Amino acid sequence: MTAILRKYGVEATIPFSLFEVDGIDLRVDAVYAAGDVKITKDEGAEANTTNSFTDEGSKYSIVLTATEMQAARISLIFIDQTGTKVWLDTDIEIETYGNASAQHAFDLDTAIQDVNMTQISGDSAAADNLEATYDGTGYTDDAAPATQSQVGSLSIGSAAISVQAESYVLTTGTQTVGTVASTETLDALYHTHTDSAGALDLYYQFDVGGSGTAVEVGITGYLNGSNDTILVQAYDWDGATWDTIDTRNGSNSTTPITDSLSLLVRHTGSGANLGKIRIRLYAASGLTSATVAIDQIYCSYAVVSQSVGYALGRVWVNTAIGTAGTESFVNGTADNQVLTFADALTIAGNVGLAEYNISTESTLTLAANLNDAIVYGVGYELNFGGFDCGNTHFYHASPVNGVVTAASGHVDILDSIIADVTVNESHFTNCTFTGTITLGSASGDVRIVNCRSGIAGSSTPVFDFGTSSANHDVFFANYHNGIEIKNFNATTGGGTDLLSLSGIGKLVVDSTCDGGTINLRGVWEIVDNSGSAVSFNYDENRSEIDAILVDTGTTIPASIAALPTAAEINAEVVDVMETDTHAEPASVVGATASMKDAIMWSKTLGRNKMTQTATTTLLRNDGDTSTISTSTVSDDGSTFTRGKHT
Description:
This protein is mainly beta. The protein folds into four domains: 4-97, Immunoglobulin-like (Sandwich); 153-303, Jelly Rolls; 311-542; 584-642, no CATH class. Strand 42 and strand 43 form a beta hairpin.
């Protein structure tokens, strides 16, 4: 029944309908009597409502007082108290809102809500960062949205995009004015250095991302010192050397000079230094009190990377030869697979994905919980590492090992080869088992559908119910080949285990099993080592098969064994033919006489005395004391006729 909502502690009118006792038509003339309406608050004791109900025509209503509305959950129970009920019993569920003690604290009557959010997804730091983003304080982080100042720090050069320096390194010399942040905009606020004993060495570093290639660097500033010269250099990541791209000569002037200097492909880093560019200001010696002042320095780059991206909506992982990194739309793509699953999780969170593809040569060992995800691949090794994988699907792993839990939902493992795992709530579909599957200490259901043993020879996979007090409900559907069951309802545990097994194969029940019934469907050879502690319940087909096996294995062979031998049959035939005697017939045998009577009749006709007159033939008995039969004869001159013996 769907609950209705009313405000906590506020008098409320509750409309309702009553039905005839047959439950078909509305009852429109019900009359209230004391006790007809009961109220319970938060599953407490029943009490009569303060007010009676009111007839509203085809429907009714009842007013609940403000006191009666002071509960999170309120139940109204309508039961006719008359001797013969005139309406069908019914009830109404009410949930309150708008109070800390209500079922729903949120006040639905307030159009504009005063919300004080302290956490986002259970993370208080995230709520604080969101506040800083919008209250003027400001929040910056590599993974955070860009601030206005950061966006303003992007400048336009001859390439598509320009970025300011992310950092700088001073090796020789002294920083006298400003910081690297002073070089972001052209505002006459300088980042200034002086030499140290005639030498100066510093560089600015830029990051153009994994999809960018630097094309030029722009520098606005001056070198104060008429006899001094410094080199502007770009780092060659291929040759691990510095390339000189400009020479700056000093003067006594502080008027800034602007230069745009071209960069080569080798000046953009790759691998662990992906997208990095370093611009160096350098003099090994010879400076005479030189001052280098930089008002602005930026790097322009073009986006030249081409990628198939997160194909099929997945983050792609190769733990053997992947590339470390978490840059969105650079790392973890189908053609630039990420090296670690930890990085894959970060990427997935950044780009809003929950599916992963693991390469064949990879080994996936979980280092944290993985919920509500889908993991694809073919032939990758999987180790659960003891983490929670509730509502996560794993496809085509080989082999699968480790301990996995599911605090919510279940773990789905499909089309995989299962070695040694410990599970609780889990589903296996079209899997091959080669090791031991142990049920964990948490109660739950395990479903095994269209699976099989993958062990050659007489050995079988082991399904161990464990010795905890948990209740396990296990269902095998269309299982093939062998399976051994251990600790089914073991006395050392105390839980209740249920097992249904359908399919065909060999079932071995270990001596550690100590009770319960295994329900079997299909054709199973059973090896019961439990000492009959476990019973078996077969479906009708199996019972019929067992009966047939009894017939073919016991009854029929026994009957065949009891049959006479060929020698016995031959002796019996000889006895019948040569020893047994029969009396001659005393009268004519019938038209359907037995073989014995027919043979004796023929013998009597051929052996005994017969007398013949012109019209009659008489067959006499052996002693010539009586006539056995008579046959009439006639001859009309052309045909002689002998009649039947009678």
